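Support request from a user on the community tier.

User writes: "When I paste my structure tokens into the form, the page sometimes reloads and wipes my input. The last time it worked, I copied everything first. Here is what I submitted, just in case something in the input itself triggers the reload:"
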């Protein structure tokens, strides 16, 4: 069994300190094997925000795999935005994540790719080179290993949830994802949590799609609170706990189970409020 804590959209600079403390306590209690952080660490990509985010991340267990979000690129400093969009991100975080944004052990393989772009694409994009990278990193990993891809911007929407804008080139990327036998997609960006029954991609393959809400930011959407996902992976069964901040600590609000077989993912159980 492997446990992944999927945390997203911290937005340091527009965050709640008590909720950040509660998140540290909750994640440390649940002892994940890996923490996947799917971007928007800061609100405006300021050095002070990155420094605060780094202090916070150092209090969470290792290993971590992280990808930047659109808020981690400077917005107002045009010189930095166009010529050095990830300089601050790299400066503060380069010693934190996995080399080449890739983690593998004898049960899971997980790759992170950067979909944040310096130009207009608020909803991100996958490059042709990144599609090759997905093929290279995960295509040759045997299907007996559970394969996960992490992006900030979603590449698919969970079935039955409100439509959200997807990253540019999501469709061809999903075809590559299907061919590489990737089981699970993790993303953030929209501040809405959702674990989907399978989304059909390409010629009948399927992948489990999991969006994270915002873990500690005050920029919540609609009725959504502050959440993160606690994902247990055992063989071909995945159980997703939606961890919700209830005023003093994070509690499991719901748990959803999925089973993977030759026909793709299937919902097998839910408990708690959706
Ligand atoms: Fe965000
Ligand atoms: Fe974002």
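"...and here is what came back when it finally went through:"
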């Amino acid at each position: 069994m492997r446990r992944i804590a999927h945390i997203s959209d911290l937005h340091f600079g527009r965050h709640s300190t008590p909720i950040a403390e509660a998140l540290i306590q909750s994640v440390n209690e649940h002892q994940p094997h890996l923490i996947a952080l799917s971007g928007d660490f800061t609100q405006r990509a300021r050095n002070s925000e990155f420094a605060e985010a780094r202090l916070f991340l150092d209090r969470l267990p290792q290993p971590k795999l992280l990808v930047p979000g659109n808020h981690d690129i400077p917005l107002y400093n045009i010189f930095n935005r166009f010529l050095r969009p990830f300089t601050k991100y790299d400066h503060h975080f380069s010693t934190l994540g996995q080399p080449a944004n890739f983690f593998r052990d004898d049960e899971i393989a997980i790759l992170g790719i950067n979909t944040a772009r310096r130009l207009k694409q608020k909803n991100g994009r996958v490059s042709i080179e990144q599609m090759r990278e997905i093929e290279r990193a995960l295509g040759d990993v045997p299907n007996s290993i559970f394969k996960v891809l992490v992006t900030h911007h979603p590449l698919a929407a969970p079935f039955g949830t409100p439509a959200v804008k997807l990253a540019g080139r999501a469709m061809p990327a999903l075809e590559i994802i299907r061919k590489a036998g990737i089981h699970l997609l993790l993303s953030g960006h929209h501040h809405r949590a959702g674990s989907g029954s399978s989304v059909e991609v390409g010629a009948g393959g399927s992948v489990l799609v999991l969006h994270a809400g915002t873990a500690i930011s005050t920029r919540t959407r609609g009725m959504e609170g502050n959440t993160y996902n606690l994902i247990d992976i055992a063989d071909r069964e995945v159980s997703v706990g939606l961890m919700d901040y209830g005023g003093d600590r994070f509690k499991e609000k719901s748990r959803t189970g999925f089973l993977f077989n030759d026909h793709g993912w299937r919902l097998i159980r839910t408990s708690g409020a959706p």
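Agent notes: The reload is a front-end session timeout and is unrelated to the input. The longest strand covers residues 250-261. The two ends are 24 Å apart (CA to CA). Escalated to web team.
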